[in-house]
Amino acid sequence: MTDNLVIAGRTFRSRLMIGTGKYPDLETMRAAHRASGAEVVTVAVRRVNLADRSAGSLMDYLDLDRMLILPNTAACYTAEEAIRTARLAREILDTPWIKLEVIGDEKTLFPDNAGLIEATRVLAKEGFIVLPYFNDDLVVARRLIDAGAAAIMPLAAPIGSGLGIQNFTTLRILREMITDVPIIVDAGVGTASDVAIAMEMGMDGVLLNTAVATAQNPPLMAAAMKHAIEAGRMAYLAGRMPRRLYASASSPLDGLIGSRP
């Protein structure tokens, strides 16, 4: 596809972003990453020793010649924690890119949107390319963009739930009202059809992890996600037919054999 995703001036051919957690082993993770075609891989800074570049470490299994590493601030519960974690990631990895998470509830892992806005504002002023994960709220989205977010990442359902898109109306509103930065659906995807639906709605991309990592065959599921991204995006660009309540014949009715004059 020649329809590329652009975030903060950087162009990506793939609109799929993928994670690194929950895989049965690192070899399976690497195979899934390759099958996905993803060009962005996200890593939890507080859960992985990013400074360990020895053979056999997580970093040794990431194809960083092909993929942009997107550190994230998972498991941060305050803006201050998230800001410190982002700064640590930039120092270790020499990248200004950060997927920003400020968690507000331990059980649901729903974000603390107020803390998220605060952290986005601070990090954007420091030159970070901030991609914040947030509830699907239009007002919060606008405030994150005003604070300097390079893209916004609304959840489709709770993290790791596999429920698929639960909030069609609010995501449609976001797509209609937010046009100045990309919208990347993050969290809740369970299978390829969820990805295709998100893309058919006009989302600019999807970030996922658990749906691939915990599948019975992660590389095969990753390949399915790749095709779903492409099919959904093409369907969105093509423009679907209007929905009708009643049947509409697909063949012309004029000149039917034996038709009445």
Protein architecture, described:
With 261 residues, the chain is of the alpha/beta class. Helices cover 36% and strands 15% of the residues. The chain has eight helices and ten strands. The protein has helices at residues 26-36, 79-93, 113-125, 138-147, 168-177, 192-200, 210-213, 218-238; strands spanning 5-7, 10-12, 16-18, 40-44, 68-72, 97-100, 129-134, 153-154, 184-186, 205-208. The strands form three sheets. Strands 5-4-3-10-9 form a five-stranded parallel sheet. A three-stranded parallel sheet has the order 6-7-8. Helix 1 (26-36) links the parallel strand 3 and strand 4 (40-44). Helix 2 packs parallel to helix 3 and helix 6 (192-200) runs parallel beside helix 8 (218-238). The longest helix is centred in the C-terminal third of the chain and has 21 residues, at 218-238. The chain is globular and about 75 Å long. The protein starts with a strand and ends in a 23-residue tail after the last helix. The model has no long low-confidence stretch (mean pLDDT 92).
